[in-house]
Please model this.
Amino acid sequence: MADTFEHVPQVWTAGQLRQALDGLPDDTPIYLDIAEDPGDFDGSRDGVLVDAYHEEVRWPSTDDEPERYESEKAITLSADWKPGTYDQAADHQTPDTEGAHGESGLTGTVHGNAFSKVDGLAAVLEPLPESLKQISRALRHLEGAQMIQMAGGGVPGEPVSALLRALLNAQQATAVAHGHLREAADLLSTMRGYLINDDIEDAGTTA
Model:
């Protein structure tokens, strides 16, 4: 199992955000600097604020109580990628595909297909840790309200604990995998060209 650490960011309150926005014109756009890894803004990604909402938790109906919804105290801000030209298939910013030519025999782009696939996988994994966290949160609500019933009539305590541990492990694993894929995509995006076959053969015979 991979080494873990406790990440405890200083979460802003509505009052701090309101103070930061004080005096700004109503049409001021809001950009977000999103850390790629917990607490690490060196490899951060730019985003834009597109929505804000209170997350709702659904409580299913029981024999004693009707179905109901509860809103979380915290407000959730939704971020999107910044405006730009993006690849429709993989939902990432289209890299410069103009080949690099020079004395070294570089031509074309090495990252065209590889970058698209790796970046696409990173984009797929990105929302999974947060989704798993929300599932765990809803599960804890149900457990606290004693609304979980086992199919065989047993006590749900230990199975729920095991499920929460599995969800936490999955959350951490997908976060780590996303970080590695994002790093790989960033590295691929810096590779501007590849040696053509003739140059590779010439290099092999003169080595």
In short: Residues 90-111, 195-203 have pLDDT under 50 and may be disordered.
